[in-house]
Amino acid sequence: MTNNSSRTTNAIETEVLQTWHDNASAWTNAVRTYQIASRRLVTNQAIIDAVLNHQPRKVLDLGCGEGWLAGQLAAKGLLVTGIDAIAELTDAAQQRYGEKAEFITLPYDQVPTALARQKFDLIVCNFSLLGNESVAKLLQSLPPLLNEAGVMLIQTLHPDTAVKADEQSDGWRRETWQGIGKGFRGSAPWYYRTRTSWQTLFDNCHWQLRYCLEPKHPQTLQAASIIFCLESKPRQAI
Ligand SMILES: C[S@@+](CC[C@H](N)C(=O)[O-])C[C@H]1O[C@@H](n2cnc3c(N)ncnc32)[C@H](O)[C@@H]1O
């Protein structure tokens, strides 16, 4: 992963989706053949358990990719809607899991309008919040989609282990896809935040951290990811 601060924010936010468009088929293959060891060993089960622990009935899987999580949750009897901007990914999801879950091709900025009539018990974002300003806008727009007691779960790279100690300051990084299978092109931009910056983001977007989990890799014993559980803060009456 390398630093990339010279690109303008808008260009790099746009590049996030272009990258997933270009790598949709390689990503689908990597996920479905369990090429990513941390997912296989830790983070897949961690997010399934975290969701089920809340006993939700209706779940929104934002940035669902090729649909594995929506498929797993639907197999447990949950009503799941998976959203992703990349049609090749939602098509793959539909083909494999479409009998159990619903999949819609949408970028995040269209989600609040498209789903305005729906309420979910739980929103889950599994390694799918990759941008900077776009993520802040998304978080601000989501509270109306949650039931009163609803929660959002965000699983993401752990701020303490995702980059080296001397690189732990906010900014764009690049995933070079090393060791996760064949067929990937270019590199994928993602925005690194320190733990404090995640907390500031939640505060600014009116979310309250209820708890966080740090699932450990069984071999390295390092945190393999972090899972934030958030509830929407009531807005102060003016
Ligand atoms: C690392 S993949 C994770 C996919 C899936 N959640 C999983 O666990 O396999 C990130 C996903 O987020 C989606 N994504 C990122 N930014 C998005 C946006 N602005 N609108 C919709 N989907 C987005 C990408 O298309 C991609 O499928």
What descriptors fit this protein?
Rossmann fold; about 35% helix; two-stranded antiparallel sheet; 8 helices; single chain; about 240 residues; 9 strands; seven-stranded mixed sheet; binds S-adenosylmethionine
Write a brief structural summary.
This protein has 238 residues and is of the alpha/beta class. It has helices spanning 9-22, 24-32, 37-53, 68-75, 87-97, 111-114, 133-141, 195-204, and strands at residues 58-62, 79-84, 102-105, 120-126, 146-156, 171-175, 188-192, 207-213, 226-232.
Structure description:
This protein has 238 residues and is of the alpha/beta class. It has a single domain, classed as Rossmann fold (3-Layer(aba) Sandwich), CATH 3.40.50. The protein has helices at residues 9-22, 24-32, 37-53, 68-75, 87-97, 111-114, 133-141, 195-204; strands at residues 58-62, 79-84, 102-105, 120-126, 146-156, 171-175, 188-192, 207-213, 226-232. The protein has a seven-stranded mixed β-sheet with strand order 3-2-1-4-5-9-8, with helices on both faces. Bound molecules: S-adenosylmethionine (SAM). S-adenosylmethionine (SAM) binds next to helix 1 and helix 4.
Side-by-side strand order of the widest sheet: 3-2-1-4-5-9-8
- Summed up, the helix count is 8
The ordered H/E elements are HHHEHEHEHEHEEEHEE
CATH architecture: 3-Layer(aba) Sandwich
End-to-end distance, in Å?
A: 45 Å
CATH superfamily: Vaccinia Virus protein VP39
Total number of distinct structural domains: 1
Largest sheet: 7 strands, mixed
